[in-house]
Specification:
With 362 residues, the protein is of the alpha+beta class. Helix content is 65%, strand content 10%. The strands form 2 sheets. Strands 1-8-3-6 form a 4-stranded antiparallel beta sheet. Strands 2-7-4-5 form a 4-stranded antiparallel beta sheet, with no helix packed on it.
Length: 362
Amino acid sequence: MLAPTVSNGLTTLGLLAMILDTSPVIDQAQHRFLTWSVIAVWAVITMSFALRLHRMHGWTHRSRYLTSGNGLIDVVSSLSLPFGWLVTSDPNDALLFALVWSMRYIRHTAGLALFWRVMQRSRTALLSIASLFVAIFFAASTLAYIFERHSQPEAFGSIPRAMWWSVVTITTTGYGDLLPATLWGRLLAGWVMIGGVVMFALWAGIIATAFAEELQRRHFLHTWDLVATVPFFQKLGAATVADIVRLLESRDVAQGTVIVRKGDPGDAMYFLVSGEATVELAEPVKLAPGNFFGEMALLFGAPRSATVIATQPSVLLVLDVADLRELAGRRPELINLIEAEARRRSEANAQAETHAGHDRTK
Ligand code: CMP
């Protein structure tokens, strides 16, 4: 089994050799070298595939792999050159079948799963636009045939011929190889171009919205997973948790990061999901997963009362001050809990300071 970077590097080498091999400027020796390079890459790809199959236990695993996306890419990559040889019986042309190796890049692309999901979710809307495209395409081809067949029989003499003009115009590609000559033909061209622009704009809008929704959904699920591990949230009802999850941002911080600095204005509060943070007071307070901090400045409208440092690599959930205010209106039970803890901390700090003052005057 090849590591993703090795596999991608090898695929690139093989494809480059295949492309350069078609160049007329290479001499015989270079041609031989490039041909053997493509064959060598094919051999490595095929051997690593065979090895992967060999290492799998049982035919159930093997057949499951062979029918998966990755397995099919391996099968197609390994069969590419033998199949090319069989079909073309020309070794040079057989190498061109290495083109299918470009599919190998796909399997290491994390964003592809997201892309498929987006396509699946927006398929109804995309299909509606596609059917609109087909309707405009047929209508434009037929009307162009009706308007232009007498003045340009070569290009518009039949509906299939007019279809080429139609597709070039709908997609607003406009090669300019065919132009309508009649007034009605030109009017039609204008409408088809406008229809094409609108259709592609709709298409792009649908895909962009579906992407944004899917990312938001993933963010929600990821945050929900983190929130589920914080005991503080478990005390709240499901509706409150769902409400707050929407507003939280997760953040990873390295050990030693100053998360909150004493005297700074408060802009957010934090929930510690994992790791450890320390509040730098005369008597430092260690915060464990499940604790929150940074709430005092927000609730009391004062500067940060202490510096808080991550004493271990930590994961935090961040709640922005504006979101906290919004939440306070809707979920008073949540704010009451936070406020009670803020007051307790504030009193503990005041007491500690009074003690320290007494000790100094003694
Ligand atoms: P804030 O004042 O916004 O910034 C520093 C934070 O440290 C503060 O909010 C509290 O969340 C936290 N903090 C201050 N004092 C204590 C304490 N005694 N125990 C636990 N946390 C504290």
